[in-house]
Task: structure prediction
Amino acid sequence: MGGTGLYISVLLDGIFKVKTENRAIRERLYKQAEQKGSAYLHRKLKKVTRWPPSRSTLMIPGALCARWKYFEVTGKPISELQKNREGLFATHRVRIFCLDMERDKLYARIDRRVEKMFKQGLILEVRRLLKKEA
Result:
């Protein structure tokens, strides 16, 4: 899950507060994924968690690396950590409404938005962010 779905999940379900930033672990995991493939990390995760990843997640090394990093730092699978979240669902009566749009119109709208982002300097912004991280 990413983008809007992730934001909504954090808002409604909350986010667990576990500090796991460890550059050495992250770099090692990305290197393993690059050398041995995402399937390698997927197999390692299946041994320690009941997390049922979708096929699409198997193709995202970042998601697999993040889940394994949480396990290495805390000794618990991310699914256990997620049980200790508290968002708006815990304190409010939440109603969810969804606006639906025809797929063709939605994709055309997304295409226009992406083109606009590139015209407004997306590449330059990413380059600046990458320089900050280095």
In short: The radius of gyration is 18 Å.
